[in-house]
Amino acid sequence: GVKNGVKKAPKAWIVREKDERDEPTPYPDYPHPDANAVDMYLYPGAPELGRLQLQPADAPGQETVVDNFSFSGEALAQAEITDHRLLYLSPVLQNDVHISGLASVKVRVASSKSTANLSVWLVSLPWNTGRRTTITDNIITRGWADPQNHRSLTESEPLTPGEFVELEFDLQPDDQIINAGQQIGLMLFSSDKDFTLHPDPGTKLTIDLEGTILTLPVVGGKAAVEKAFKW
Known about the structure:
Layout: E1 12-14, E2 25-27, E3 35-43, E4 49-53, E5 62-66, H1 73-78, E6 86-89, E7 97-101, E8 104-111, E9 118-125, E10 139-145, E11 165-170, E12 174-178, E13 183-189, E14 204-208, E15 213-219, H2 221-228
Parallel strand pairs: 4-6
Antiparallel strand pairs: 1-2, 3-4, 3-15, 5-14, 6-13, 7-12, 8-11, 8-14, 8-15, 9-10, 9-13
């Protein structure tokens, strides 16, 4: 019953990446009302770097990653060449890109064994290894899924080796501005050293690139991404 004006105040307050003294910036809501889903597609490049782009590639094929939990996600994101992750990079951003809400991925994957982990990181590169790194410097968001639960979150079933299944899931909620000069990277790998079980190394995950899509909630939608994505 106290008339303090709170109902007229902005609904969301976010401490931005460069805000001084942790003073938050007001927004009309969260996710940002101007955030729209933008689909991004994969162009092959393993074991080096593939591309993240706005148009589907013609017959992009399949790429394979070999599980090995002994490599951290941070190490995999910084590796130039490795069989233990697939990494797809956007062009160097010409403008800031504001992500607000839930990113999601659709992945078509086959495993060489009846069980496997699937880990997905969205990263900002080049990786900042300086002393003054913050929570928003390198990892944009991430998520994990068990391919054995591709039909149900409550009931799992063994995978048939070599048979493709489809997974679709959200990554962790986020609101982050990726600065011009950076690249947005989608990294797919199997076991996450810090967050998943540690099966014996060697399981192979084959990703069908045509059946794999990243969806980002971008303030300004596709037009904002097209402006930033200029090779």
